[in-house]
Amino acid sequence: MPRVSVVMSVYNEEPYVGHAIDSILRQTFRDFEFVIIDDGSVDRTPHILQSYRNPRLRIYHQENQGQSASLNRGIQLAAGAYIARMDADDIALPQRLEREVRFLDVHPDIALVGTWCMKVNTATGHERLQRLPENDAAIRRFLVVDNPFIHSSVMIRRSVIETVGLYDRRLIWQDYDLWVRVAGNHRMANIPEPLMVRRKHPASISGTSKKSRKSWERFQIQVKASRQVGLTSAGLCAMARSLAEAGWWKTRGR
After folding, report:
1. Any idea what the Cα angle at residue 14 is, between residues 62 and 87, rounded to 5°?
2. Nearest CA among 106, 173, 183, 116 for reference residue 143
C-alpha cells in the first residue's frame, strides 16, 4: 500500500490538467498513488487523462457532482496513510511530497501540513509569493479571519479525516470548514517554503461562485472558528483589528 494518496478532482481543465499531473509524477518522493476523479468534464480533459499510462494513476469518471463530492469519493478510494490534495490547475514543485511526508513523520503531533506558494495570474503573468502562518498558534489566530492554507498544498493524516469527517459538499468554502473542524482537537502547520505554484484564472471555482453566498458562508465559518479556538466576540474584533493593522490581507489564504 502506498504511504501517500494524492487526490485530485478535475472538471474541464484541458489547458492545465496535464501540467498538474506531470508535476506530481515528477516528485522526488515516489511511494504514492494518484487518485483522479473526472467530474463529468465535457472538454478534452478525459482524453488527456486517458493518454497517461503510469501505474501510479487511478482515474475514475463520473457524472458532474461538484468538487466536494468528487474529493470525498477520491478520499474514500485512497489507500495511503497520508492524503495529499492537488488541484488540476496548480503545479507541485518536485520536493513537495517529500518535504511534507518528512515533516509529518518528524512531528507526530501535527495532523495537517500545508506550504506557501507562488501565486500566478494567468491573464497578466504577475507572480507573487503567498506567505501563510507557520505554527499552530499563529494558524489558530489566522483561522478566525481567513483561510490559513493553500488547499492544493495540504497533506493530512487519513486517521484525522476518519475522525473529523469528509468535506461538506453543501459549501463553497469546503476546505476552510474542514480546517476549522480539524482545529478542534488537532495541531496544524505550514512549511514556510513555496512548494506549489497556484494559478488564478477566470474559470477557477472561487472566481465563479456568487459573491453574496461566499461572504455569508465565510462569516459562518469564521464564527465557528472563533468558538473552536475559544475566542469571544470582543476577542474576535480585537484579533481582526490586529491582523488588519499587520497587513494580513496581503497574505490571504484565498
Report:
1. 70
2. 183
Distances in Å between the Cα of 159 and the Cα atoms of 71, 78, 81, 148 are 16, 12, 8, 21
Give dist(CA 228, CA 37) in Å, integer: 32
At residue 251 the predicted structure's pLDDT band, cuts being 50, 70 and 90, is: very low
- Asked if the model's pLDDT at residue 38 lies above 80, the reply is yes
Alpha-carbon gap, residue 245 to 183, rounded angstroms: 25
Question: Are the C-beta atoms of 5 and 80 separated by less than 8 Å?
Answer: yes
- Residue 21 maps to which CATH number? 3.90.550.10
d(CA 143, CA 136): 10
Q: What range does the domain containing 244 cover? A: 4-251
Q: Burial of 207 by CB count in 10 Å (0-12 exposed, 13-18 middle, 19+ buried)?
A: exposed
- Split into its structural domains, the chain has a count of 1
Concatenated DSSP letters for 78-143? ---SEEEE--TT-EE-TTHHHHHHHHHHH-TTEEEEEEEEEEEETTT--EEEE----SHHHHHHHH
What's the pTM value of the predicted model, to 2 decimals? 0.88
Q: What is the pLDDT of residue 224?
A: 86
